[in-house]
């Protein structure tokens, strides 16, 4: 932090010089001494950080000068130094904005020294918080979080921009690993709620019997093991955003309680009697098709319509054209920075290998692949043999079995049919084949099963 500018306004020259000398022992303090209020005000271009103000000045009364200082800059802490030990006078100064009140005596120098140290610590803390906020805003700016130039991603940008300018609920859908949580944070940290809490709740990670306590909180003694009062997630998110990830995993019987909370914007803790109002923006996410979940009676229709708000569908990585290469470059740069390495490039053969792979694990899998490639390469260039793909997902197209082209073709068609909910027209368009090819395959499979 920069050196601290301290103003001392004191008409007793000897006492003022004493305070200035004492404070100037700290090389991080720039101390300026003024004998009257007029000189203090005329030197505000020096941008004081702290003002030490004598109560009785010859030209301007201490309380009047304090008010003038506060009119110029209400954030500057002012320490009143006075020969009066009148408690009412001290209280009056504190009421009109003084930070502290110090009585003139043999201990004034030390008291002032300690008061300024505390102020400096608070200023450093505020400065650190502001820096963290700036870094947080930078971290969640669109260009740093949602990397890509594909039309699919441009559409996501448009919807995020629409979301940040209002309080409509947002529902984010997409396969696992596509970055649903990143989109949720981008909305929050680019909205006017960015300085308020962002509370994320993973529905799949909370046991059914603890959901209500996590959501709504509980009172001390509400049940066995409730040794103290707990504030629920909705109340914690007041003024900010609550992000309910994997919302489709919420138990059907608890969905009605969630619906009531969202409708009424209030919660009643377990064991509590009075409802507590909250004001939080709701963002939900799921990798499942909520419409299908409603049709299958796994998700309440009334809750669906309450939470759907602005829908944002995140495309899988394999449908994002050359975004794979942009993301790869981004992850390489992150790895280099975190591990303090020299620049690493990626060869044409490695790029080709990445583009041919379907990435069933999406962006999360790509980052894992790139991190490993950075470790395995020669430290200068990532080649194709440095790139290793996982074979955990049985639906990926990392072919290891010896099958005929016809067999593999059938597998590909069936995979896309399943993905497109057996929509033959959509599948034919995606694979650039005739509908008759798909119908013939289905007829053959039906005949073989008889």
UniProtKB/TrEMBL annotation:
Tagged with keyword Membrane: no
4-aspartylphosphate modifications at: 54
Highest taxon listed in the record's lineage: Bacteria
Protein's recorded name: Sigma-54-dependent Fis family transcriptional regulator
Annotated ranges, domain Response regulatory: 5-119
Lineage, opening ranks: Bacteria, Pseudomonadati, Bacteroidota, Flavobacteriia, Flavobacteriales
Transmembrane portions of the chain: none
Domain (Sigma-54 factor interaction) ranges: 146-375
Sorted UniProt keywords: ATP-binding, Nucleotide-binding, Phosphoprotein
Species: Flavobacterium bernardetii
Keyword flag Membrane: no
